[in-house]
Amino acid sequence: MSPVRGSRWKEWNRRLTIMIVPHGTARPRQITFSVPFALFLFVFWTGFTGWATYVASQKFDYWRVKTNAHLMRIKVDYFAGQLKRSEEAMDEVRQMDRQLRTLLSMGSREAIIQGSSDRPVGGPSPVDSALLNRALEGNLSEPALEDISLQVRLFRNQIQSRIASFREISGTIDQERKEFRYTPRGWPVNGYVTSPFGHRIHPLTGLPEFHEGLDIAGPAGTPIRATADGVVLLAGWASGYGKVVVIDHLNGYATRFGHNRQLLVRRGDRIKRGQIVALMGETGDATGPHCHYEIRQRGKSINPYPFLGPADF
Asked: How do 223-225 and 253-263 pair as beta strands?
């Protein structure tokens, strides 16, 4: 062996000493080991540390995934419960919808669209069937995310259907309200009928004629009230009618109040049912104080009797 190689071998195999000096009277301790052994310990410790770190990270990822899965299950169960309660509320909404339609004598939207009668029908959805099968298998507590997603879509469609239905009901109610407000209803004045609607002998000329309204007599100055909401078309003098008020009710109906002593409205005024529009008199062709009351539908005079009802004065 050459002197150089022998020197390097001695350098590689030289020994290292670590001395531990305790406090007090205890004897110092020393640990002696060679350089190759120290290198072995370093490599072993580095490898062990790396392996332990890898195993720990794998365990950490496992528990993290397991924890996330558990939290996800809790969330799924929560949303499934909320969806169930929402469906129960939707059932109440459906029942209310049917009750409102019954009160309004409306058919269901489905019956109107499909042209069928409102027969008692129904049935579970495919999702309901899947949930029942899962319950029979003992897995009711584990709702599938796909089932919940499908239920949400179906529930959204039901909401849209109910919204459309309530809009239709609201439109019907609004139309009924307008029909009530703008259709003549009730007596225009407190009095008694002296000449009915239909054929009669004219009290002044003695000739037969067709009487296009009712003559309701009473004391002069008795208030005359509008029988529906509308707009005043005329408030002035007209041949035969004397001082007359004509109201357009905006739905094909119009009313006329003739022979008044005084007019209390003007052309263009918006009128409410029950509002006083004139005071009873005997202007025009009249033999005494009374109100000549006419109802016209699309320009044609009709019998006011069906619109009167009981007097509410």
From this structure: unpaired
